[in-house]
Specification:
two-stranded antiparallel sheet, 8-stranded mixed sheet, alpha+beta
Length: 191
Amino acid sequence: MLTIDLYGRFSSAFGFVAANMRTRTQQPPSGVEVYVADATFAVLKLKSAHDGRVYNFRNTVFTEDDSGIFAPPPMLKFERSKNITATAIAGSDNVVVEDFGLGQWGITMDGLLIDMDHHQYPKAKMQELRRMFETTNIFEVLKCQPMLDLGITALYFEKVESLSVLEAYPDTVKYTLKAKSTQPPEFTIDD
């Protein structure tokens, strides 16, 4: 029987765990040690425009082939602002808004790299994460319901904010990546 302490890892890494994870894993159904809700909306699949390599972020507990897979899917945070040009009116408390547009989406990815097979430091997954970050091109978003719902179809990585091995879990590394959304440039040629 397979027992995986995802609760402890998430609690150690992020200081909290989704309420249904704890209640579902406290008393699992007969013969089942891990409760997995339908979290397919959180699956993230990116394709590098540089070399066509595909990177999967999804739960691999019940997957035989985990090559190129990071587990479990990262927690995603999004932020966006508007690009506004405003001119102050002399002698007034008001401004004239001359132009505005939308800024890029800022994306924060918080996740865990776990060596589920040998329970050692996840060297191969760390190298894969480094390779992905060092790619000098954009990534097409092939799958990720929240991103696609926000209109994010491509992104690039701008920062590795943190990497840390979890205390009491040497087979687990917590990561935080920062990315920005991007769109292919559109050009109009006048004759």
